Amino acid sequence: MNLDQTHKNLEEESNLHSSSDFEKNRYLVIRGAISTDLAEFIYTYFANKRLVAKALIDNKIIAANNEYFGNWTDTQIPNTYSHYSDIAMETLLQKVKPVMEKATGIKLVETYSYARIYKKGDTLHRHKDRLSCEISTTLNLGGSAWSIFLEPDSAKGGLIDGKYVAGNTAGVEIKLEPGDMLIYRGCELEHWREPYESDGCTQVFLHYNNATSPHAEENRFDRRPYLGLPSIFRKKPEPPKILENSEVVFTTSPKPTTPSTIKANNEINSPIPKSFGL
Ligand SMILES: [Fe+2]
N or C, where is the chain less crowded by C-beta within 10 Å? Predict the structure, then answer.
């Protein structure tokens, strides 16, 4: 297993597709995007991490909703192990970016990774993603496969009077084996999974922004200083200037005659989101 080989596999596979396919369809499947050896390694690593997380939580060493070892508190898929920004997954996010760019024909900025080990009975309801998921992948790492569905018509599903109204279409079923990757425009195409009848499907979502989008720089690393950090490091959309004495001065106009100052720790961190709309 090595990442150079992973890149080679993905580059060879992406050569079989034209980036215009992605432009036209807004999704693309790449078989063998990473080697089965690498997929198996990460699958085993993540299964081990789940066991460690459970032991640490059960013994009250870490909080039930911690983001350092993963948790079972994501309301989108209740009681399923999930992990925002696991460092190995964030490294994968970095390493597949160049070949993602080749496959899509789009220069990308990394936003974040999110991994889950699905259990029997899980359902991923029809939804579209938040802005940090402009160009997304779901990559099968192992376990019993679970199909994902996409609605190719971007007009289906969306907000009406502030409430999400799902489409009522059959969509396209995508079956991924370990190492296979689906690339899709998560903010535009509704996607979902039907109730899972097996157990243990391990998937990682790798999310990117189009580098030329107006919000791309703001969304870089999901508004964190760098990859691998938990969501408490996510900055607000207009981060205040941080002074050397760790105080904050608001610089948005109109400028106050006397700067308002507050402690940085209280202002640059945002609460942990309940769900990432994956
Ligand atoms: Fe999603």
Answer: N
Spacing, Cα 126 to ligand 1 middle (Å): 8
* Fold topology of 3-232: Jelly Rolls (2.60.120)
The string of pLDDT tens digits covering residues 184-237 is 998 899 999 999 999 999 999 999 999 999 999 999 999 999 999 999 999 976
Axis-axis angle for helices 87-95, 36-58 (nearest 10): 150
The domain ranges of the chain are 3-232, 233-267
pTM: 0.78
- List, for residues 53-96, the tens digit of each pLDDT value: 999 999 999 999 999 999 999 998 999 999 999 999 999 999 99
In DSSP notation, 133-189 reads GSEEEEEEEESS---EEE-S-TTSSEEETTEEE------EEE---TT-EEEE-TTTS
CA 167 to centroid of ligand 1, rounded, Å = 15
Cα 214 to ligand 1 centroid, rounded to whole Å: 21
